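FAQ

Q: What does a record look like?
A: Structure on top, sequence underneath. For example:
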């Protein structure tokens, strides 16, 4: 694999376009730039904004590929367990209960996880957790389901546990092969994700192609099994207050997964797909940009107004919003 130590690429020759504006009291006080790509049902590029061919770190948008890799490694997971293996879970009680169950089923403990201790990802859950006397733990980190599945896959194959996050570990080499095969391109850089796992860079076009591959894969294949589990149990992929859950629940057949630093990838049941990244990592722009991109793909659903709503407050009252600008 490519080393995680690498030269920083030169800045783009052309400044990325504005994808979202921050409007307060009728005044544009900020802008979020980025790149975006939309694919038609047959996989052709329908719209490009910015430079969707440049590599980015998809962050947690790579989790479906990581989950497919543990299936290819022979681990038997299905339904909620498989959805949780591909999750950035909110840390709600039902998430944590299932992580504990999965650890016990595979003879593991929370101490085996090498994800860093953290609070629940959802702010509401984090407040409740702290109020109940909770402290940062590995199990409450949003990637704990993925790490549990990775460890279980290692045990299934007799691979070492202690080095399961090493880019040269057999499991991580398998992840790399799934990422490249589904995206249809080579990974130019491997870095380290926030949870400590290897992080494979892709172009946004490659990321959209990968999601399209998952929803169009033949039934029973690892990729289709992951997509089906995520779509059937979206609350385990994200949480009850998260846009990925709302979208997969309310637009049948949709596969959706956000990533840190404002990355988003979506594929619809017929193969239409999108991927984008907000350059400055501004997560507040995710919803408005996602809703607008889905509209341009032809999606008509009430959930888009919910996803796209990003109000700005002044004195406790709504005085503006973050809005899409394309």
């Amino acid at each position: 694999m490519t080393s995680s130590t690498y030269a920083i690429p030169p800045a783009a020759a052309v400044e990325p376009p504005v994808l979202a504006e921050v409007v307060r009291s009728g005044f544009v006080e900020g802008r979020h730039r980025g790149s975006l790509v939309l694919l038609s049902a047959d996989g052709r590029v329908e719209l490009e904004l910015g430079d969707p061919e440049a590599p980015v770190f998809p962050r947690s948008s790579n989790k479906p590929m990581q989950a497919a890799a543990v299936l290819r490694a022979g681990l038997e997971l299905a339904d909620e367990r498989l959805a949780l293996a591909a999750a950035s879970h909110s840390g709600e009680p039902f998430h944590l209960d299932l992580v504990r169950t999965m650890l016990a089923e595979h003879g593991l403990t929370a101490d085996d996880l090498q994800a860093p201790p953290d609070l629940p990802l959802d702010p509401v859950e984090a407040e409740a957790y702290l109020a109940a006397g909770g402290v940062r733990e590995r199990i409450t980190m949003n990637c704990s389901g993925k790490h549990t599945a990775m460890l279980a896959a290692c045990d299934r194959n007799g691979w070492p546990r202690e080095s399961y996050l090493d880019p040269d570990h057999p499991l991580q080499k398998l992840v790399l092969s799934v990422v490249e095969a589904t995206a249809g391109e080579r990974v130019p850089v491997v870095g380290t994700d926030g949870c400590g796992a290897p992080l494979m860079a892709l172009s946004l076009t490659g990321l959209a192609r990968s999601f399209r591959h998952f929803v169009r894969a033949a039934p029973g294949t690892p990729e289709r099994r992951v997509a089906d589990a995520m779509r059937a149990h979206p609350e385990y992929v994200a949480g009850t207050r998260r846009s990925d859950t709302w979208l997969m629940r309310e637009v049948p057949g949709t596969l959706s997964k956000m990533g840190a630093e404002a990355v988003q990838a979506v594929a619809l049941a017929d193969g239409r797909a999108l991927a984008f990244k907000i350059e400055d990592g501004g997560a507040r722009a995710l919803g408005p940009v996602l809703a607008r991109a889905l509209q341009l793909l032809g999606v008509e659903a009430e959930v888009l107004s919910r996803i796209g709503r990003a109000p700005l407050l002044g004195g406790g009252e709504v005085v503006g919003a973050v809005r899409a600008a394309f």
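Q: Is there anything notable about this one?
A: Confidence is low (pLDDT under 50) at residues 1-8.
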